[in-house]
Amino acid sequence: MPLYETVFIARQDVSAKQVEDLAAGFSKIVNDNGGETKRTESWGLRTLAYRINKNRKGHYTLFHFEAPAKAIAEMERNMKINEDVLRFMTVSIETLPEGPSAILRQAEEGEDRPRGDRFGDREDRPRGDRFERGENRGDRPERKFSKEGEE
Hints:
Largest sheet: 4 strands, antiparallel
Distance between the termini: 86 Å
């Protein structure tokens, strides 16, 4: 039987328990139609790249299935009907991946990019072609600054 990977995004105002129930329901649909759920991962509430139906966040869930195409089609039909599911995507895969997904590995390892001032001290920051205020770059006419009352 072919292997499939499915990710679906549920609305942000749905509780985590309801998302688990949704996932269990979709898994049951596949199992009832001759398939087998290999793995289910909940990625939690994550920020969306853009707003979808006035939602800025969504609950992400990943499935790995071994199932006939008709079972996947029935699961997708139910996802389309369900108003709590914002988006879903199913792809066919050659082999089941080993270990946790990239999202869970990133969460376990912590963030791989630093936050805040990425150059540490401000003196270490590359300055490029910048000049101090009032210094002439040579490609512009000299500007004269005057204080109030002076001309």
